[in-house]
């Protein structure tokens, strides 16, 4: 692996991240085409998943792609979907070499894209900045391999782990810089998810604000009984920004009809032990195409995800204030008796975010 290969792949990865949250159910891929040391084409997966990154870059490069090197963050697809295979597009364009970060685990591709390139006489180099690419593709791979989206759990709390006072006041524990960062995180996920209690208490919109004109993530609510206020902000905006509600079999017919009339998409999931089965909820979200979900609580939903081992990343914003034992905890009951039972995460980074601290954790 040369320094040039590393630099160009880093560029392709940065481009690919522009598609995160925008191109599900497809992976967010970046592509850079280099000829004689000069970049002649670049692209990333477009909103809705097409055109693919390679096609965008090849179109920009035109005839200069012949004899060039293409840097791609994921193995070029080899199957006919709604568009022809990208491996064929690279062959037709006459590129001399393809450098890829990762092999695609989708069984429709999984090595076949590389094989098609090699059979056409194109040199293929793989595993360039693979660790970085794997992080970017975690959501896509989770859906392909486990049938569910990647879950990022966000907590914003006082330094004693409280998300509201005893009376429910919570706006604002963290400052404007932290809130802006949360909006950026929403933007890089396919959906924002909350529990019914959060909708009833806060009446959130769960949209991205202050980032210009962007493609909004859809909103997911987990509500066992579908007992949500029909005059809420989510109901009023469901035809503008999609709202999906995951509910249990006990949700009554009138409630289902009322929410369906708002334009919301209703998904019935299993209930286990009197609680929504979050494994089934996430499986159904994956079946519907989601790859990256940003969960913003509340405490009961966060605890159920942690109990089920379904949290892949944690984003914890900590404010410099204390609310005491009477405040509302960030997490509901986990039923833990020993430290060995506690879910554990590995620290990725710590950074100052205005007057607050942001810790990013990954599943250990």
TrEMBL record:
CMP/dCMP-type deaminase domain spans which residues?
Answer: 3-117
Pathway of action: Cofactor biosynthesis; riboflavin biosynthesis; 5-amino-6-(D-ribitylamino)uracil from GTP: step 2/4; Cofactor biosynthesis; riboflavin biosynthesis; 5-amino-6-(D-ribitylamino)uracil from GTP: step 3/4
* Catalysis: reaction(s): 2,5-diamino-6-hydroxy-4-(5-phosphoribosylamino)-pyrimidine + H2O + H(+) = 5-amino-6-(5-phospho-D-ribosylamino)uracil + NH4(+); 5-amino-6-(5-phospho-D-ribitylamino)uracil + NADP(+) = 5-amino-6-(5-phospho-D-ribosylamino)uracil + NADPH + H(+)
Q: Which GO terms describe its molecular function?
A: 5-amino-6-(5-phosphoribosylamino)uracil reductase activity; diaminohydroxyphosphoribosylaminopyrimidine deaminase activity
Tell me its cofactors.
Zn(2+)
- Note on how the cofactor is bound: Binds 1 zinc ion.
Q: Which keywords are on file for this protein?
A: Hydrolase, Metal-binding, Multifunctional enzyme, NADP, Oxidoreductase, Riboflavin biosynthesis, Zinc
Q: What is its EC number?
A: 3.5.4.26, 1.1.1.193
Function, as annotated, reads: Converts 2,5-diamino-6-(ribosylamino)-4(3h)-pyrimidinone 5'-phosphate into 5-amino-6-(ribosylamino)-2,4(1h,3h)-pyrimidinedione 5'-phosphate.
Q: By its UniProt entry, which NCBIfam families does this protein fall under?
A: eubact_ribD, ribD_Cterm
Q: Which family does it belong to?
A: In the N-terminal section; belongs to the cytidine and deoxycytidylate deaminase family.
This chain belongs to the protein called: Riboflavin biosynthesis protein RibD
- Source organism per entry reads Mesobacterium hydrothermale
Q: Which gene encodes it?
A: ribD
């Amino acid at each position: 692996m040369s320094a040039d290969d590393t630099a160009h792949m880093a560029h392709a990865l940065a481009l690919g991240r522009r598609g995160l949250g925008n191109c599900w159910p497809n992976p967010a891929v970046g592509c850079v085409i280099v000829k004689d040391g000069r970049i002649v084409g670049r692209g990333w997966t477009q909103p809705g998943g097409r055109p693919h990154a390679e096609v965008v870059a090849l179109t920009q490069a035109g005839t200069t792609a012949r004899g060039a090197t293409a840097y791609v963050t994921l193995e070029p697809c080899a199957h006919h979907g709604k568009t022809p295979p990208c491996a064929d597009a690279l062959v037709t364009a006459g590129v001399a070499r393809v450098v890829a970060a990762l092999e695609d685990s989708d069984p429709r591709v999984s090595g076949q894209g590389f094989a098609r390139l090699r059979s056409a006489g194109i040199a293929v180099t793989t595993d360039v900045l693979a660790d970085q690419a794997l992080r970017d593709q975690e959501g896509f791979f989770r859906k392909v391999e486990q049938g569910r989206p990647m879950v990022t759990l966000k907590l914003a709390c006082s330094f004693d782990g409280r998300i509201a006072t005893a009376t429910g006041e919570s706006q604002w524990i963290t400052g404007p810089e932290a809130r802006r960062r949360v909006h950026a995180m929403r933007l890089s996920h396919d959906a924002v998810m909350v529990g019914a209690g959060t909708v009833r208490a806060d009446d959130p919109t769960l949209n991205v604000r202050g980032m210009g004109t962007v493609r909004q993530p859809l909103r997911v609510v987990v509500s066992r009984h579908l007992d949500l206020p029909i005059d809420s902000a989510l109901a009023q905006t469901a035809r503008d920004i999609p709202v999906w509600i995951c509910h249990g079999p006990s949700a009554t017919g009138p409630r289902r009809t009322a929410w369906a009339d708002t334009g919301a998409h209703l998904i019935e999931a299993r209930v286990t032990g009197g609680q929504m089965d979050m494994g089934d909820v996430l499986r159904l979200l994956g079946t519907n195409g989601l790859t990256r979900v940003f969960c913003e609580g509340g405490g009961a939903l966060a605890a159920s995800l942690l109990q089920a081992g379904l949290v892949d990343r944690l984003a914890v914003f900590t404010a410099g204030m204390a609310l005491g034992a009477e405040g509302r905890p960030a997490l509901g009951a986990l039923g833990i008796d020993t430290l060995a039972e506690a879910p554990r995460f590995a620290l990725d980074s710590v950074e100052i975010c205005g007057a607050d601290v942001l810790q990013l954790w990954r599943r250990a």
